[in-house]
Amino acid sequence: LSIQAENSMPPGLQPAHKMSIVLFLERVYGIPDQETFFRLIEEAFLPDIRCATILDMAAVSESDLALALNRYLCNSVIPLMTSHAHYFEDCDHRSSLLESILHTIYRLSKCRSLTKNQLDSVCEFLLAFASTLKPSMMTPLLRKLVHDVPALTDQTIVPLRMLTQWYEHCSRYYTISATEEEKRLTMMLFQKIFDALASRVCI
């Protein structure tokens, strides 16, 4: 997506147009199978989500384009992916795609230009998506959360909710079958969270 200096929309298919297309696709045709769903994510949704994360890091994070892209993603794409989260179950053969989805949308949750409602939409997807994953798929993200969660900013509400649900969902696994690294990451996460909370109380 090109960005014009005058902060106007670029020519071509704009986020509002894409929003209408996604709505038409879902209501008229539906998403009949897992492969159709994954193809949409790979070829249409993930590239736009990556664009949103890039724009948020640039000086144009409050531009018309960036804000319209956020609206399109959080009002159309993310809710559609949430409502079809069952397609993520039992698809170990697409582990690379699952990993890409997890990390890309987690990066989206850190975008400063998201509104509260948009952040809630992203959070609901991540909760639904994570509930379909095997513990090994979450380990790379847990490594990131060790550094991100202790900040306790508005954005950390998403990983905190993810961690709460994740450890409730997989408590038996982490008690009995977790690897040494998974146990170490778990201890580090909880220690850093408690330390961050304690430091806030002392301020």
UniProtKB/TrEMBL annotation:
It comes from Rotaria socialis. One of its GO terms (molecular function) is ryanodine-sensitive calcium-release channel activity. One of its GO terms (cellular component) is Z disc. InterPro entries: Ryanodine_IP3_receptor (IPR015925). This is Uncharacterized protein. GO terms for biological process: release of sequestered calcium ion into cytosol by sarcoplasmic reticulum; striated muscle contraction.
